[in-house]
């Protein structure tokens, strides 16, 4: 019979395993494991097998291992994990794409009943319709102020009812009613809380950013830099075009208000002296839009004019010989 492994030996084995994982993997997902069963966790392990390893353990043990390993190896970046080990959490060491691994983890969610005392992660709404329960069960609905009626010998809910609000604890009456209705309102699985990547820690929301989101944020940053540069008159690559344009506008304004002149200013002065030239300058654009419509219309008007003239002559001849 093999000797029983002591707690000290288990701690040493766990410490070696975690240290080897820290040395091998540079990417770690910190996940919450609340209400996750052993069978469900085993399925997740199978789904991630190949490029990811899930490690569970007591927070105090994990923190101690990380600190000791950091002192022995000089890897101070790994200490960023220590503040994240709060609550019922686990670690997923991975070499794969962080977004793909996060999405794979999210697939393994299972429905769960509303147990008494459980904090509701979402709002629970009981839909209207026939419940299939006999009239003797109406007491459950009356306690919870759910409007019902008897239809064909069964209890029917008249309107949808918000039974439990997010953040509230599930009571015994709510749990019993949902169980009778066969409603499993909650679903649980591993939830990614934080991401560690080569010493950097960030929110998992970053993994959902697309190229369009990055482009939009970059454009917003450039706009802010441009605004700041213009406000303090500090030249930057982003602000330089605007500075040149504003300077040219100032020079043009001075030339218009004074006798100083140069070719572009002369043209502007001509427009200001004779505003009708603005319309002349805009005329080619209007002609280009209308295309050949104007010549055709003119030709039709000319033809009508000739017909009117001929009819007038005929009438005059007839009247002459009457």
Features:
single chain, 322 residues, alpha+beta, Alpha-Beta Plaits, Molybdopterin biosynthesis moea protein, domain 2, 4 domains, five-stranded antiparallel sheet, three-stranded antiparallel sheet, 11 helices, 51% helix, disordered C terminus
Describe the structure.
It contains 11 helices and 12 strands. The chain is α+β, with helices and mostly antiparallel strands and 322 residues long. A hairpin with a 2-residue loop joins strand 11 (191-197) and strand 12 (200-202). Helix content is 51%, strand content 15%. It folds into 4 domains: 7-109 and 189-208, Ribosomal protein L10, N-terminal RNA-binding domain (Alpha-Beta Plaits, 2-Layer Sandwich), CATH 3.30.70.1730; 124-186, Ribosomal protein L10, N-terminal fragment, domain II (Molybdopterin biosynthesis moea protein, domain 2); 211-285, no CATH class; 292-321. It is flat and about 100 Å long.
């Amino acid at each position: 019979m093999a000797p029983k492994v002591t707690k000290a030996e288990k701690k040493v084995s766990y410490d070696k395993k975690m240290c080897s994982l820290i040395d091998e993997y540079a990417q770690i997902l910190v996940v919450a494991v609340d209400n996750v069963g052993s069978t469900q966790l085993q399925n997740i392990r199978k789904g991630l097998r190949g490029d990811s390893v899930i490690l569970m353990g007591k927070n105090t043990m994990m923190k101690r291992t990380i600190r000791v390993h950091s002192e022995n190896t000089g890897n101070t970046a790994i200490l960023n994990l220590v503040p994240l080990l709060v609550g019922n959490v686990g670690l997923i060491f991975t070499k794969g794409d962080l977004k793909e691994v996060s999405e794979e983890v999210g697939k393994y969610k299972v429905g769960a009943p509303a147990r008494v005392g459980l904090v509701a992660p979402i709002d629970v709404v009981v839909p209207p319709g026939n419940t299939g329960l006999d009239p003797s069960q109406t007491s459950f609905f009356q306690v919870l102020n759910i409007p019902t009626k008897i239809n064909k010998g069964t209890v029917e809910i008249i309107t949808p009812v918000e039974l439990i609000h997010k953040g509230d604890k599930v009571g015994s009456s709510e749990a019993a009613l949902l169980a009778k209705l066969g409603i499993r309102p909650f679903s649980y699985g591993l939830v990614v809380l934080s991401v560690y990547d080569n010493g950097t820690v960030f929110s998992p929301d970053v993994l959902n950013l697309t190229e369009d989101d990055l482009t939009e944020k970059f454009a917003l940053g450039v706009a802010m830099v441009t605004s700041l540069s213009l406000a303090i008159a500090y030249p930057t690559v982003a602000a330089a075009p605007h500075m040149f344009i504003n300077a040219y506008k100032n020079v043009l304004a001075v030339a218009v208000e004074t006798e100083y002149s140069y070719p572009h200013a002369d043209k502007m002065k001509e427009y200001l002296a004779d505003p009708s030239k603005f319309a002349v300058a805009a005329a080619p654009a209007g002609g280009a839009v209308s295309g050949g419509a104007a010549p055709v219309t003119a030709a039709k008007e000319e033809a009508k004019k000739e017909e009117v003239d001929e009819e007038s002559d005929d009438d005059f001849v007839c009247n002459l010989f009457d």
